Amino acid sequence: MVSWLQKLEAKLVLAGLFLVHLLKRVLFFWRKKPGLNEFLQNFHGDNITPVGMEERKLFPEFQRCQVCSLCTFSCDAIAAGRAPAAFEPKFVLLGFGRSAHESEFFFDEWLPCLECAACTVECPTHVPVHAMVAIVVERRKHVAYRK
Hints:
Elements: H1 4-27, H2 36-41, H3 53-62, H4 70-73, H5 76-79, H6 90-94, H7 104-109, H8 118-122, H9 129-140
């Protein structure tokens, strides 16, 4: 059980931290906080392309992925031997990060996609995996190929 003295001590600590916060705001009000442009400079060399509204609308659907690998087993490109054994559509969903469309793996290895949508048909949560592969391939067209 927490005593009244411990509660008072906790409230005094919080009040002290709040006071320090207020003093910093008042005493250092002229300091400019870094904005969006400064933030974007961190990624300037990465050739990041903006995510469009069509892509954003699909993100909640991609988050339904349960990593069950049924998309891998249903992939005709893998079955036909056109793609390496490590080629798994779920990796697009799990790895759609800022550089996924730039990496050589996504450019070279994902082009075997036949766009048959078998991965989406077999998905128990109906994640449009083929749509994400198409987005990655399309975004990759706008980035200079690096060797």
